[in-house]
Design goal:
By secondary structure, the chain is an alpha+beta fold. It has helices at about 1-15, 20-40, 85-95, 100-105, 110, 115-130, 195-200, 205-210, 225-235, 250-260, 285-290, 300-310, 315, 320-330, 350-360; strands at about 45-50, 60, 65-70, 75-80, 145-150, 150-155, 160, 170, 180, 190, 215, 240-245, 275-280, 295-300, 335. Belongs to the TOP6A family.
Length: about 375
């Protein structure tokens, strides 16, 4: 029983609750006070950051996904150390920034070097302060798109209608501000690739079978796409399916939506959807639907490394059906893209494959 209470306490520390502006400012002030105190004592200021990108920093929690451990390894940044001084300056510079991510970058592109560097800095600040990035009033431009039976209001009152069958709506850059969600959708379909997403739009998939919502993060999903899937799941209480390539990287992308990522495990509670179901393309579908051999792609060394990594993860071993599919893929040493289904027939994906899967329960 004691161990049970310890686990609950650790999880409570990991799950970041919505934070008011004053709470955020108080946390920032504490960091700055620590720096000022060190300078007044004639010491070099130090910032301590949790190591967000190490597997040793996270653990798997079945109802949430990848969450940060209580005893996360810490990286020390010293302002007087050449190897960490630049990052120290970056963190201090942006502690008080309340602009869009792109605006911060273009205020001083030479300081940051790249957008990727800035994104990492902002995530470090969020993790250090134990608040979501959006609590810092820093909103990244979304790369994802959404379409289907869905209407909602943005925070500023703008009405967004996603019902168009031929065009998609960019995912909001302020998902938390969305309200008045209205939808008769029967399910949500996460689509890995933009090309497949466009194919579903062209074939009016969202209305052909039953009302639904489709969303794509165009590959590895950005935070806003993940937030949107989570918000819709919380609000609509409908099944969430994933349509990804039958390859190790497609599975990895699906796992990010379902279980989260190492780097953002500190806010897993608002980003993961543990109920995501793998609809396709399953490795076993390759033989079941007789996907032409010439459309299959041999495994690369990178594919082999990725699949070996996947098989060591706790969230795969707790899903026997997923584990069997991954083992089958590794035995075949071949992968298939969703587009390979069009070699069977031009509209096979939208008029045969997906309808059969959804009608007869062909997911795991």
């Amino acid at each position: 029983m004691a161990d049970q209470f310890i686990e609950v306490d650790e999880l409570r520390d990991t799950l970041l609750l919505p934070t008011h502006r004053q709470d955020v400012l108080t946390r920032i002030e504490r960091v700055i006070q620590t720096i000022v105190f060190s300078v007044s004592e004639g010491e070099a200021p130090v910032l301590r950051l949790m190591n967000r990108c190490n597997w040793a920093s996270v653990r798997f929690h079945e109802s949430v996904g990848l969450v940060r451990k209580a005893d996360v390894p810490v990286t020390t940044l010293r302002c007087d150390c050449p190897s960490s001084a630049t990052r120290f300056v970056h963190l201090c510079t942006e502690m008080f920034s309340f602009l869009s991510v792109r605006d911060i970058y273009y205020n001083d592109p030479q300081l940051f070097g790249s957008q990727k560097t800035l994104d990492s800095i902002l995530d470090d600040i969020s993790c250090m302060l134990k608040v979501p990035r959006r609590s810092l009033h820093v909103f990244a431009t979304s790369k994802g798109f959404i379409s289907g039976d869905l209407c909602y209001l943005e925070e500023d009152g703008t009405k967004v209608d996603c019902n168009s069958s031929s065009t998609a709506v960019p995912v909001s850059s302020n998902v938390n501000g969305i309200r008045n969600i209205v939808s008769a959708a029967k399910f949500i379909l996460i689509v890995e690739k933009d090309a497949t997403f466009q194919r579903l739009l062209d074939d009016a998939f969202c209305t052909r079978l039953s009302p639904c919502i489709i969303i794509t993060g165009k590959g590895v999903p950005d935070v806003n796409s993940r937030l949107m899937v989570r918000k819709l799941w919380d609000t609509l209480h409908i099944p969430v399916f994933a349509l990804v390539d039958a390859d190790p990287y497609g599975i990895e992308i699906m796992c990010i939506y379902k279980y989260g990522s190492r780097s953002l495990a500190f806010e897993a509670h608002s980003l993961t959807v543990p109920s995501v179901l793998w609809l396709g393309l399953l490795p076993s579908d390759i033989q079941r639907y007789r996907v032409p051999e010439e459309t299959l792609i041999p495994f690369s060394q990178a594919d082999e490394s990725k699949i070996n990594s996947l098989r060591t993860r706790d969230y795969i071993s707790c899903q026997p059906a997923w584990e069997r599919e991954i083992e089958a893929m590794q035995r075949l040493k071949q992968k298939a893209e969703i587009q390979s289904l069009s070699s069977i027939a031009p509209h096979f994906l939208t008029r045969v494959y997906l309808p059969n899967k959804l009608r007869y329960g062909g997911w795991i």
